Known about the structure:
By secondary structure, the chain is mostly helical. The chain has helices spanning 26-32, 36-74, 77-119. Helix 1 (26-32) packs across helix 2 (36-74).
Amino acid sequence: MSAEPAPRRETVTGEPRRVHRPQRPHTRWEIDEQTTLGAAYVRSLMRGQLRTGLAVFAVLVLLLATLPLFFGALGCATVVWAVLGFAAYPVLVLLAWWYVRRAERNESDFARLVEGAEHRGGP
């Protein structure tokens, strides 16, 4: 009977040459680790939010600065109280609504920018 020797089994005890890490989106990593590129992404979002806030502030200052001129031209205390008591609030609500909508749009644009960079394979 001819017995063929069984193949010799070897055990590898060295470290593997390539470690498989879970793939993490590159752009999010840049932002999380606060690298130069990540800081540029965040800075662009902050710049957009600042621009929106300054626009709302400018409109508010313009409205508040013209109120005394408007009240002086009217000369009627009843209309002044009506404007201060009722007409000012819808304007403020509309201004706040526009600000929130614009801020959310800035954030969604930022999210699309980050996701788009991840799908393209990097920045």
